[in-house]
């Protein structure tokens, strides 16, 4: 039985999104910052927060010189890893979360929101079963990985975004199938994009976004963070993502940022939300992680460490299937698993 803890603070972002739901409609969208810092004229020591000094006091020369050399070495390592991260072939692969009744959830996703069951995997030695659902094959689409086990949804996790061509029609279908509608179809506050919010049988919220045909209907994963600028910096440097859009909503006391590996109309992106004055959230255990593909899990782990993340599983092959992975936490404790691109494709054969 799921236990959903309501958000009691009035400063928590309300369910109806304001703007920034669609990258293409956000008038504050920033241009790509993929190589922004590489093009700057500022010295690398300035970029990484190091203070260069041409003065060495008598008697302290050896210590200061050694310190400056260490700082320069660290800056060079950061620069090298940042450059590699930006060139690495990365794509968001899966979002993983727990459900209480696998067959019931599969039925809702396939009949109400148009997903396809791609595969199921039973792992009896670990006492759980996985199901993979999405709008296209895993080698080219972002998909959902459901795990059947006990779970507890808390306030930290936000919602998923799904692009549909007709929000009202989708909502009517969900109602007919017994689904729960949290917000009826209508224009987003402060904009013209038609949205609605619905809830699946396990209590996970989905924002329906009305737009034309798109190659990636599963387009958003929203997570709440305690320091938005710090999170953006981490995802840009350690994960190689781009800041696509940032929107402040003072009337409702929250700020959002869209980050990812490409525009939201063609890719799934992360929507990071900062609610004014809230720096920590109870995450529960329902939402598990996002999986991202990489060409090198070992260098990925290096980058995560040097740019302030925490590696929770050192890079290497998984027992039994030999797929190389590494796992880490962002500054807010949200988990990401990086998967070797070649090994991932072998799993799908």
UniProtKB/TrEMBL annotation:
Keywords for the protein's UniProt record, in alphabetical order: Lyase, Metal-binding, Repeat, Zinc
UniProt entry tagged with the keyword Repeat: yes
EC class of the enzyme, as a word: lyase
Cofactor: Zn(2+)
Reaction(s) the record says it catalyses: (R)-S-lactoylglutathione = methylglyoxal + glutathione
GO molecular function terms listed in the Swiss-Prot or TrEMBL record: lactoylglutathione lyase activity; metal ion binding
Transmembrane helix recorded as keyword: no
Pathway(s) of this molecule: Secondary metabolite metabolism; methylglyoxal degradation; (R)-lactate from methylglyoxal: step 1/2
GO BP term (any one): methylglyoxal catabolic process to D-lactate via S-lactoyl-glutathione
Top-level taxon: Eukaryota
One Pfam family, short name: Glyoxalase
Binding of Zn(2+), residues: 145, 159, 207
EC number(s) per entry: 4.4.1.5
GO CC term (a single one): cytoplasm
Start and end residues of each VOC domain: 91-211, 217-341
Active site, per annotation: 207 (proton donor/acceptor)
Cofactor note (record): Binds 1 zinc ion per subunit. In the homodimer, two zinc ions are bound between subunits.
InterPro entries, per database record: Glyas_Bleomycin-R_OHBP_Dase, Glyas_Fos-R_dOase_dom, Glyoxalase_1, Glyoxalase_1_CS, VOC_core
Stated family: Belongs to the glyoxalase I family.
NCBIfam families in the cross-refs: glyox_I
Function: Catalyzes the conversion of hemimercaptal, formed from methylglyoxal and glutathione, to S-lactoylglutathione.
This protein's name: lactoylglutathione lyase
Organism: Salix udensis
């Amino acid at each position: 039985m799921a236990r959903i803890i309501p958000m009691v603070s009035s400063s928590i972002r309300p369910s109806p999104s304001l703007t920034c739901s669609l990258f293409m409609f956000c008038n504050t969208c920033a241009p790509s910052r993929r190589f922004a810092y590489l093009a700057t004229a500022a010295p690398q020591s300035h970029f990484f927060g190091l203070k260069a000094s041409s003065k060495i006091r008598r008697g302290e020369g050896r210590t200061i010189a050694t310190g400056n050399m260490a700082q320069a070495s660290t800056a060079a390592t950061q620069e090298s890893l940042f450059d590699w991260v930006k060139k690495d072939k990365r794509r968001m692969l899966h979002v993983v979360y727990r459900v209480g009744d696998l067959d019931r959830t599969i039925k809702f996703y396939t009949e109400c929101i148009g997903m396809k069951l791609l595969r199921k995997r039973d792992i009896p030695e670990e006492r759980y079963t996985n199901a993979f659902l999405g709008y296209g094959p895993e080698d080219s689409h972002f998909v959902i990985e459901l795990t059947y086990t006990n779970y507890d949804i808390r306030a930290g996790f936000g919602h998923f975004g799904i692009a549909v061509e007709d929000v009202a029609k989708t909502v009517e279908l969900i109602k007919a199938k017994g689904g729960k509608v949290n917000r009826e179809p209508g224009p987003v506050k402060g904009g013209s994009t038609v949205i609605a919010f619905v809830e699946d049988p396990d209590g996970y919220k989905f924002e329906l976004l009305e737009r034309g045909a798109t190659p990636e209907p599963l387009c958003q994963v929203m997570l709440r963070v305690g320091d938005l600028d710090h999170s953006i910096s981490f995802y840009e440097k350690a994960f190689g993502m781009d800041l696509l859009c940032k929107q402040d909503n003072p009337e409702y006391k929250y700020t959002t940022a869209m980050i990812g590996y490409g525009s939201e109309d063609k890719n799934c992106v992360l929507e990071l939300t900062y609610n004014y004055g809230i720096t920590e959230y109870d995450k529960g255990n329902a939402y598990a992680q996002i999986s991202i593909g990489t060409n090198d899990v070992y260098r990925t782990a290096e980058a995560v460490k040097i740019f302030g993340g925490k590696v929770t599983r050192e890079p290497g092959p998984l027992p039994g299937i030999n797929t190389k992975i590494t796992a880490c936490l962002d500054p807010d404790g949200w988990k990401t698993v990086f998967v070797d691109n070649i090994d991932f494709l072998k799993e799908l054969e």
